[in-house]
Amino acid sequence: MSTAETIIQTRTFENVKQLPETNKKIATWLSFLLIPLSGLITDIYIPSMPHMAQDLHQPEHSIQLTLTLFLISYGASQFITGSLIDSFGRFRLTLFSLVIFIFSNLVIVSTRQIEMIYAMRIVQGITTGFIVVAKRAFFVDVYEGEKRKHYLSIMSIVWSSAPVIAPFIGGYLEKYFNWQANFYALAVYALVMLVLEWIYSGETLQNKRLFKGVQIVKDYRFMLKDKSFGWGIAMCGLSYGATMVFSLSGAFIIEHRLHFSAVVAGYAALLMGLAWMTGGFIGKALLNKAFLPKLKISNALQLIFAIAMIGMAAFSYNIYTLLAFAFLVHICVGFIFNNYFAFCLGRFPAMAGMASGLTGGGVYIVTSIVSYSVVGSLQPQNQQGLGCSYLITGVVSFLILHLLLRKVKAKTG
User: Fold this and answer.
1) Rg (CA), the chain
2) Which of 45, 170, 183, 332 could be 302's S-S partner, Cβ–Cβ 3.0 to 4.6 Å?
3) CB burial class (10 A; 0-12, 13-18, 19+) of residue 382?
4) What is the dihedral of CA 334, 340, 341, 346, to 10 degrees?
């Protein structure tokens, strides 16, 4: 038996509601509605960050840390959640995680202690890890062949809808209510999804995998030996890290330096989400084009736009030039992410949960390290600083892509 062929128990789950064939379509829609949860959690309160800092009497970096802690815990949790849902099923763990997630939001709105908010953001990262990993694995469980490939690509686009919708909603919640309204909204959303999941969804995992620590390590080692898979995780993390740079610094630049309102900051974040989604749609349209060459072109454009953004700042700097260049950069990184994320998720169909967990976990760990390190070291305060942040992530992506291309040419040459 090879390393990849972990011992499997062939019996299905007893005393657990199975997904009825008649509910397959609605369960698919519910999965699509839960996939963007991680994006909703990160983006809905972005326009509120400056006011959150003022209300809690905290410096900017302390509020930015609430986002970073979520990213780290969400990423780290997925290294184990993938194995757990492969061993104990998707359905019950998803329901339990939704309950805990609802509770964590209610704690956040009722406290003024930043340490408690940090703790609840970590809890949210872990519970969201269970929910999203299970729903990503759903498509591998239920669909095969071209349908699976189709849904995995669509899934990435659906996931990118959260950065479009969330800050738009968050900006108005901040304007008419307060920063706590964002977390009330998340609790209500999770409650609705909990009820719908309970009624219409069910277990999709047909065969259990034994939960053994040694075997899990062997499986992860097997997957990471696939260099294209490992580099793919790094590329996804760098691409999403570029967008998180804007999430961490954009609202502060727009509200504190350019003196616009939280609603304007929300619209700006919405625009970045549209750019990310546009990159995803372009990636879907070019799905059958040669893989690495199209990514190389997108990365080259990313570097060109970042350099132009820095250069233009010397002649013209306002909210329009800031957002125009950021929009172009986000299209490029959205394109790269869409292609590589779908590739990584479908790479090991026999270990769908583990592949989903390792991919998601690796991506968010890389994202959190890249985004917080870049923002922490450069502390972007304007268009030039933001452009430099984009340039750094683009240069690292450039080096990885060229390393990959060189290895591919060496194998085929």
Assistant:
1) 21
2) 332
3) middle
4) 150
Locate the DSSP E strands across 101-238. 208-209
Q: Which CA distances in Å does 275 have to 323, 328, 333, 335, 346?
A: 10, 7, 9, 10, 25
Tokens matching residue 30: 């519910």
What distance in Å separates the CA atoms of residue 261 and residue 265, rounded to the nearest whole number?
6
Dihedral sign for Cα 11, 14, 18, 21, please.
positive
- φ, ψ (nearest 5 deg) of residue 364: -75, -30
Domains belonging to the chain, first-starting first, are 20-205+213-412 (1.20.1250.20)
Closest CA to 326 of 368, 265, 257: 265
What are the tens digits of pLDDT across the range 108-160?
999 999 999 999 999 999 999 899 888 887 877 777 777 776 777 677 677 76
Both structure tokens of 197: 């999941």
Rounded Cα distance between 34 and 200, Å, is 14
Quickly tell me which residue has 């942040």 as its tokens.
389
345, 133 contact by CB (below 8 A) = no
Question: Are 253 and 384 a contacting pair, CB within 8 Å?
Answer: no
85-104 pLDDT, tens digit per residue, is: 877 888 889 999 999 999 99
Alpha-carbon span 162 to 168, nearest angstrom: 10
Q: Would you give the DSSP letter of residue 182?
A: H
Backbone angles phi, psi at 14, to 5 degrees: -90, 145
Across 185-198, average pLDDT: 94
Q: Phi then psi for 90, rounded to 5 degrees?
A: -90, -40
Residue 149 Cα distances to 97, 145, 364, angstroms: 27, 6, 22
**For the stretch 57-75, what's the b/e string if a residue is b when 16 or more beta carbons lie within 10 angstroms of its beta carbon?**
ebebeebbbbbbbbbbbbb
pTM of the model: 0.71
Pairwise CA distance, residues 132 & 360, whole Å: 9
